[in-house]
Write a structure and sequence with these properties.
Pfam families: 3-PAP, Myotub-related. With 747 residues, this protein is an alpha+beta fold. The protein contains 24 helices and 16 strands. Among the domains are: 124 residues, PH-domain like, CATH 2.30.29.30; 328 residues, no CATH class.
């Protein structure tokens, strides 16, 4: 049957043959179109989802090589997603080998996830936008989750090509109105399906009771109070309806400058010190009277929170002494290009430039600077017993990032899944981070699109990678959370402020009989079956020990330190790119010069910070206490699971962290079984490990990028070095060398 085959055509580098190949060429599909009985593949629509346009006889290319092999099917565009409907037997249907999302399929792209669209005209790749005079023969879609899709339209009817290309460009790139988001269509049509998972105990911080609970949990209620002065957003639309301020602060001061200049409480330390944040007062030109009034107001605020020797406050101006949003935007724009690979040839051509491109993007250095700033603030709170006041223009970008990182490092509750979700609700959602603008969901301004939240998740991943037993959740949890930024059935990441969300809710209630019940992303049962959700929970998480202090003394979990950059102090041979053995002195010198500033970055640390940092790392780690990351250059790594998961060449079967965790689980289960026999007890307490995902069994079959990588696809290695290698040595000599694979789980 034609629909079940892999269609071959074109030329290019030699690649391994698939397990089943149809010997019908694309040209034959076109000429014999009337004789072909196309197998109908059902398009699954969500409640409220509508089909907009479609095109038949489309080839979805396999990304492995340049042979232009692909799957024959139909390309459709709805008001929610772009979807390719093909019958591909190469996709595994076995539940044990797939991590399925119930909302987004393998060949689905939500409209908000589309980053760039390219067309190929006479083998030339061009960016597509606006109205087209000529339509491409190939369509390439780059996604914000770093997937790359190639569609051949050469054998599609001209009218269908115009319709599908124009529709995709319009619905993914044209500016939108907030009310036109699919979020509202889905909520209106799925009223009966919008119930929250009763097992989800995430604190939403949308009531005064939630804030009072958090104050009690952190023992901050003595010095701080929860206020409701902004109910109905009477004071400020940027702030949540409820928040926490210092107890001595008069409530009439809160409304003087529409919430600006008010020290807002974030978190209290065990020693009584607190982390605060404040948005800057608006600057008024040529108004000396107002400026003097603002100065007097700020002096009064400062005296309220700074009362030496009892209360000492250190201010940290993130707008002037830290990163800029432009720095983050520029760095990520360069960084993501390393992973938007069109084919195998391009991958190998860029391999030689990998480390220089990685370092020149500055993304890893930005992560290091964020972690360093969080450690500096932690040192003030923990070692110097000082309150810290974070300052920023609107206190809704870098304040959210730094304050959240500090709490992850200092508060073990924030390292549980419920605690982490509550932290995101408190600091990001209620903190007024402009997700709508920063993710550019409405396509109204590319300048406003800055991946601040993704940067936060990447920083948290560094901690998870360095201290796995300290976290209740896995890197897979962080990865699917980053993917959820672009799924418009959840309201969590589709508003700029709580006021905006509540205002839309009130308007919908005026026009409909029932208020919209918007879904929260924290109900993971909407996206994943219980079996798949097990991969979000860390089975190696160290529960809080019940041993006394004497028994706990000296205990430390040991884990292997691994380097992400090739220039190290070790005696192992340096590596070229990802995979090839390095023998060329020119490359050694080049890499040494380019990454030297990352390796020596720790020299920038000042004395107090250095003493605090070194002292902590010299002691056994308490996974339920303070947790600091290593921030030296080689310790800041690429989040391989998120950034490399769609690149077949980056898969290492039977290797990486997935294989390690699988073996550890097998050992732990064996220990539990032996312990049960010793205790002569029924199978009870070992149930947790028994529920560990079956997907992690059989480590030899797992990819290093599990659970996202397709296990059946073996990456094709070049027979001869590609053009990028020819200038670096004798081709025949290079061809004889064996590839040396580096475990990408340690990148």
């Amino acid at each position: 049957m034609l629909g079940k085959g892999v269609v071959g055509g074109g030329g290019g580098t030699k690649a391994p043959k698939p397990s089943f190949v149809s010997y019908v060429r694309p040209e034959e599909i076109h000429t014999n179109e009337k004789e072909v009985t196309e197998k109908e593949v059902t398009l699954h629509l969500l409640p409220g989802e509508q089909l907009l346009c479609e095109a038949s006889t489309v080839l979805k290319y396999v990304q492995e090589d340049s042979c232009q092999r692909g799957i024959y099917g139909k390309l459709v565009c709805t008001d929610f997603k772009i979807a390719f409907l093909g019958d591909d037997d190469s996709a595994l249907d076995n539940d044990e080998t797939q991590f399925k999302n119930k909302v987004i399929g393998e060949n689905d792209i939500t409209l908000h996830c589309v980053d760039q669209i390219y067309g190929v005209f006479d083998e030339k790749k061009k960016t597509l936008f606006g109205q087209l005079k000529k339509y491409p023969e190939k369509l390439i879609i780059h996604c914000k989750d770093l997937r790359v899709f190639h569609f051949c339209l050469r054998y599609t009817k001209e009218e269908e090509v115009k319709r599908i290309v124009s529709g995709i460009i319009h619905h993914t790139q044209a500016p939108k109105l907030l009310k036109r988001l699919f979020l509202f269509s889905y909520a209106a049509a799925a009223q009966n399906h919008a119930a929250t998972d009763p097992r989800n105990h995430t604190v939403m911080f949308d009531t005064l009771k939630d804030w009072c609970w958090e104050l009690e949990r952190t023992k901050g209620s003595v010095k701080y109070k929860a206020v409701s002065v902004n109910e109905g957003y009477k004071v400020c639309e940027r702030l949540p309806a409820y928040f926490v301020v210092p107890t001595p602060l008069p409530e009439e001061d809160l409304s003087r400058f529409q919430g600006h200049g008010i020290p807002l409480w974030c978190w209290s330390c065990h020693n009584g010190c607190a982390l605060l944040k404040m948005s800057a007062l608006p600057k008024k030109e040529q108004d000396d009277g107002l400026s003097q009034m603002q100065k007097s107001f700020l002096d009064g605020i400062y005296k309220t929170i700074h009362r030496p020797p009892y209360e000492i406050v250190k201010t940290e101006d993130l707008s002037s002494n830290f990163l800029s949003l432009q720095d983050i935007q520029t760095a990520y724009s360069k960084f993501k290009q390393l992973f938007l690979i069109d084919n195998s040839t391009e991958f190998w051509d860029t391999d030689i430039k990998w480390f220089s491109l990685l370092e020149s993007s500055s993304w890893l250095d930005i992560i290091r600077r964020c972690l360093k700033k969080a450690i500096e603030i932690t040192e003030c709170l923990e070692a110097q017993n000082m309150n810290v006041l974070l300052l920023e223009e609107n206190a809704s970008d870098l304040c959210c990032l730094v304050s959240s990182l500090v709490q992850v490092m200092m508060d073990p509750h924030c390292r549980t899944r419920i605690g982490f979700q509550s932290l995101v609700q408190k600091e990001w959602i209620m903190g007024g981070h402009s997700f709508l603008d920063r993710c550019n969901h409405l396509r109204q301004s590319d300048k406003e699109e800055v991946p601040v939240f993704l940067l936060f998740l990447d920083c948290v991943w560094q901690l998870v990678h360095q201290h796995p037993p300290a976290f209740d959740f896995t890197e897979t949890y962080l990865t699917v959370l980053s993917d959820s930024l672009y799924i418009p059935i959840f309201s969590t990441f589709f508003f700029n402020s709580p006021h905006q969300k509540d205002n839309v809710g009130r308007e919908s209630q005026d026009t409909q009989s029932k208020p919209l019940n918007l879904l929260t992303v924290w109900d993971w049962s909407v996206q994943f079956e219980p079996k798949a959700q097990m991969l979000l929970k860390n089975p190696l998480y160290v529960e809080k020990p019940k041993l006394d202090k004497g028994q706990r003394k000296g205990m430390r979990f040991k884990h292997q330190r691994q380097l992400s950059l090739p220039l190290t102090q070790s005696k192992s041979s340096p590596k070229r790119g990802f995979f090839r053995e390095e023998t060329d002195h020119l490359i050694k010198n080049l890499l040494g010069k380019r990454i030297s500033k990352l390796i020596n970055s720790s020299d920038e640390l000042h004395d107090n910070f250095r003493e605090f940092y070194d002292s902590w790392h010299s002691k056994p780690t308490d996974y339920h206490g303070l947790l600091l990351p290593h921030i030296e250059g080689p310790e800041i790594k690429v989040w391989a699971q998120r950034y490399l998961r769609w690149i077949p060449e980056a898969q290492i079967l039977g290797g990486g962290r997935a294989a390690t965790v699988s073996k550890l689980l097998e050992m732990m289960e064996e220990v539990e079984r032996l312990q049960e026999k010793i205790d002569a007890r029924p199978h009870g307490q070992g149930a947790l490990l028994a529920e560990a995902p079956l997907l992690l069994r059989g480590s030899a079959r797992l990819s290093a990028l599990f659970p996202f990588a397709l296990l059946q696809r073996h990456p094709s290695k070049p027979v001869l070095p590609t053009s990028g290698w020819k200038a670096l040595g004798d081709e025949e000599d290079l061809a004889k060398r064996e590839d040396e694979f580096v475990d990408l789980g340690d990148v």
